[in-house]
Every structure is written in C-alpha cells, then in structure tokens.
Design a protein that fits this description.
Length: 500
C-alpha cells in the first residue's frame, strides 16, 4: 500500500465542503472587488524567489523544493515548486504586460497550492493552499485598507469568529536604516539571551528578531524600540492614511509594531489576520492571512516602476479553524457528532431498478433516460446499474441521502407507472408511463421529457423557473399553450427588446 508523502494530505468529504465553501466566498469577494482571476503555474524558475523574497528568507533558504529541469546533465536554470504567490503574480504581470494600456489589469486574484519543506504539524503542511490578491499601480493608502477590509469581511462572512486585524508600517529603506541601528544598539548587550537564529540575524536582518516565535516572551524583544517612532514623513502619512481609511470602512484593527513580515520586498504597510479560538482561550493563536505593500518589487523583477500591495490567506488554517468552531458549537448543543464524510452528499433522487432479466433492457433504458433528463434539469441523480432487490436499493438510496427514490421495477413496468417515493415521509406517488411511446433506442423521446417534467414538478412542487429550457427535447413551444409567449398578457414587448 502506498501512503501519502509526509506533510501532504487529502482533502475530501466534510473537509472538502469547508474548503470549497471558503473558496466560493473568497471568489465572490474578489469578484465584488473587481479582481481578475489568474491561474499561475506551480513551477517557476528558482531565481524568481531568491530575487524577490531574498536568499536569507526562510522560504528560500530553508523551505523551497528546488530541482533541475532536465533529465540529462545539461546545465539549466533550477526550477522550484512555488513557495508563495506574489513573485509569480508579479512575474506574470510583467511578462504579460498587464501594465500597458492595451492589456491593463491592476487587480489580480489567484488560488492554489504552495509548497514549503517545513516541519509538518497542525496548520503547517508541505503542500498548503493560499488565496492571494495583488493590486498594482497605486500608492494610495485606500488600496491597502480595501484589501485588509476584503480579507476581514470574507473571513467574517465565512463564519469564523475571533479574528483580529494586526497592522504595522515597516517604513521605507530610509526609515529602516535608522531603525535597524537602534535595534542593534538595543540588543547589543543582550545577544546571548536570543535564540541561535536571532543571533545570526542580528547583523543582517535585525527586524526579524521582533517576530521570532522562540523569543516572543523575551523582555528585550518586548521592550525593543518601535518602528512607528522612526517613520519618515511620507511613510508616517501613508500609515495614518491606512488607519483612517480602515476606520471609515468600519474595519476593526490594532497596531502591532512587532509585525515585520519575513520577506525582503515588503515596505510600509504590513498586516496579519490572527485567529484565536473563542471557545478555548488557552489555544494558541494562528496567523491566517499575511500581506503588505511592496513598491519596489515590480521594478526589481524587470517591470516598470509601479507599486504593489497584496495579501495571501492560509486557506488550510481558516477552514480547520471553522471546522473546529462548528464542532465545538455542536458539542455545546449536545448534537451528535457523526462522521459527516459519508453523509455529506444529498442526492435529489435515486433511481432504483429492481428488475428481472426479461425487463432489464427496457427498465434500464427508461431509468437512463430519466436520469439524463433530471440531470439536465439540474438535479443530483444517482443511478446504479444494479437490478438487485428493492430493499437493498432503498438502502443504497439512504446512503446517498436521497430525497426521493424513483422506482422502475417489474411491478411498475407491468402497471405502466413509475413509483416516486419520498424518503423522509414514506409517501409514494405513481406517475403514468406510456410504454407504447417509449422508444428505448432513443433516450430523448418526447414522452421521457414529459415524464421528467412530471417528476421535477413533484420534487419541487411545480415551482421550478425555466424548467422548460432544461428538459430535453421539449422544444416545440409554439404548439404548446403554456409556452406561447405571444399570448401571454404579462409579457411586455418593450422589455424584451432591450438589445435593440
Ligand atoms: P508562519 O509564520 O506561520 O510560518 P509565514 O509568514 O511563513 O507563516 P506567509 O508566507 O505570510 O506565512 O503566508 C501567508 C499565510 O499562509 C500564513 O499566514 C498562513 O496562514 C499560511 N501558511 C504559510 N505557511 C503555511 C504552511 N506551511 N501550511 C499551512 N499554511 C501556511
Ligand atoms: Mg513560514
């Protein structure tokens, strides 16, 4: 038996339901915000990440999956499984000339798997999913605040509670030069109290000392100078602008001067969305979204000198947090926590065919035709090619949570009527089946269409708008009074000519 590679996992059943729900909400918020979707490749040249995130960042120095792009010994540029999405998005923005008048696209959204070789644990995987957005060519603080608001609103709409927006400004190169000196001075006499990683970062990247998880409780780290006291005028004004816009947008936030983000390309705005489970105050908080501004990045990767700001959401952590929250809510309300992975599907109809060999061909042909018609009508229908006993087929219908079972058995064929059974109430209704007209070599006969419409009427109480459009071969509207638009008083001619 093969097992999953360490740090990789399958998302299925109830987990997939949560994953997909989050994806839909994020897609919807991206649409409302005017973002264009882009599907980016999983593999990029490794140099893209060293140039953007920096060789000293954790993702490049420790976590990236890098390999050769050739089977022979021929030397080619190494390629990498993408560890993050901003650099590929910027690469695509430049390469596809989205900055030109002709192709102009300023707001892009993407979703997909990222890969980092880190120590797997809860909420930390080697393949994980990010939903990312990037906004180009605006320096306005309004853009930063809009993104933060979008992330916060989407997660709130998803239903996750206990989410906090933490905001900082890490200034520009000028403000940082002075600030980094101040940090080095502050830690100069306390280097020994820092972890090994921080001792190494002291000279090259002193700001990283602030967001070290190991030294989070170190008093020297807690009392370190704050970047916000070192911002130049322009950076200070930008930071005030972001805070003012967030207030105008009604998005709650707190300023946290220890957020520095680990990648070289960030400047000014840096933010994180942090989740702390409400039902368990002892549980550790986790960062579920990180983002910020990267004004120099597009230029440094060979593009025009345009600004950028974006975020990446950790979809795995968000969906797991909501699953946990829902489970806790169920526990508190004494609801049974059954394993949903099997019962997640709710089929509209299960087609049962308990038939003897004489009736098999005809019965299965009718069943196929009904399945096809109902699926075209948008219903979820399960048909198995089995002719076993009705009892075992009803059991199967329950396994799929079918609302209705449509029975086409020997009795039904003899009586020329289908039986539709409401699985919750046990109520059963016959629908006449005209076998003379059923041409079982053609599964789209007029009879089948009418039959399907009858079943859909029954299932939806005859309340399905646009039904006629989806039932197969029901095209002869002119001869059908129900669909004779010209005779329909409610139909206003003026309204129909909107394209003229
Ligand atoms: P962390 O400090 O937790 O390692 P990070 O700073 O490396 O996070 P980012 O590069 O900012 O993370 O990625 C954005 C988001 O993606 C994170 O806030 C997190 O929610 C998620 N994320 C990052 N790495 C992983 C991972 N290995 N597994 C699952 N989610 C991850
Ligand atoms: Mg990390």
């Amino acid at each position: 038996m093969f097992t999953r590679v360490k740090g990789f996992r399958d998302i299925y059943g109830i987990s997939y339901h949560y994953f997909n729900g989050l994806m839909s909400i994020l897609d919807e918020h991206a649409r409302r915000g005017g973002f264009t979707h882009i599907e980016l490749p999983m593999l990029e040249k490794a140099g893209l990440f060293s140039k953007s995130a920096g060789n000293e960042s954790d993702i490049v120095s420790k976590e990236m999956y890098v390999f050769s792009n050739t089977a022979s010994n021929k030397k080619t540029e190494p390629i990498a499984l993408r560890p993050e999405g901003t650099a590929p998005a910027v690469r695509a923005y430049i390469e596809n000339k989205m900055y030109t008048q002709q192709y102009r696209i300023d707001k892009i959204a993407y979703a997909g798997a990222m890969f980092r070789r880190e120590r797997p644990q809860r909420g930390r995987y080697r393949q994980f999913y990010q939903y990312g957005v990037e906004v180009f060519a605006t320096k306005e603080p309004h853009a930063d605040a809009e993104l933060i608001t979008m992330a916060y609103d989407a997660i709130t709409e998803y239903g996750l509670k206990g989410v906090e927006v933490c905001l900082n400004s890490i200034g520009c190169k000028d403000c940082r030069r002075e600030y980094e000196d101040a940090l080095r001075n502050h830690f100069a006499n306390h280097k020994d109290s820092l972890c090994q990683d921080c001792q190494e970062r002291y000279h090259s990247r002193p700001m990283r000392l602030l967001d070290c998880k190991k030294d989070a409780q170190n008093t020297h780290t807690i009392n370190a100078p704050k970047i916000t006291d070192y911002l130049c005028n322009e950076c200070g004004e930008h930071f005030d602008g972001v805070k003012n816009w967030l207030n105008t947008m009604g998005t709650p936030f707190t300023v946290d001067t220890r957020i520095v983000r680990g990648l070289d390309y960030y400047m000014r705005t840096a933010f994180e969305l942090v989740h702390t489970p409400e039902h368990n105050n002892d549980a550790p908080s986790s960062v579920i979204c990180g983002g910020g501004r990267y004004n120099g990045l597009v230029k440094s990767l060979g593009g025009p000198d345009v600004e950028g700001v974006g975020f990446a959401m950790g979809m795995d952590r968000i969906m797991e947090a909501l699953m946990e929250q829902d489970k806790n809510h169920d526990d508190q309300n004494d609801q049974t926590n059954e394993d949903h992975s099997q019962t997640l599907l709710t089929a509209d109809a299960y087609i049962a065919t308990p038939l003897n060999t004489n009736n098999q061909t005809l019965g299965q042909s009718i069943a196929t035709s009904i399945t096809k018609g109902l699926r075209r009508a948008g219903l979820c229908v399960i048909m198995n090619p089995t002719c076993s006993s009705l009892k075992s087929q009803l059991k199967a219908a329950n396994r799929y949570n079918a609302r209705f079972t449509i029975i086409i058995g020997d009795n039904e064929i003899a009586e020329e009527a289908l039986l539709v059974r409401d699985m919750a109430s046990g109520e059963q209704v016959h629908i006449p089946l005209n076998l003379d007209e059923h041409n079982h070599t053609n599964t789209n006969t007029h009879t089948d269409s009418e039959l399907c419409e009858g079943i859909v009427d029954l299932i939806f109480g005859g309340d399905v708008e646009g039904m006629a459009d989806v039932i197969p071969d029901y095209t002869d509207y002119d001869n059908d009074d129900d669909y004779d638009y010209d005779n329909d008083d409610d139909y206003d001619d003026d309204d129909t000519n909107i394209n003229k």
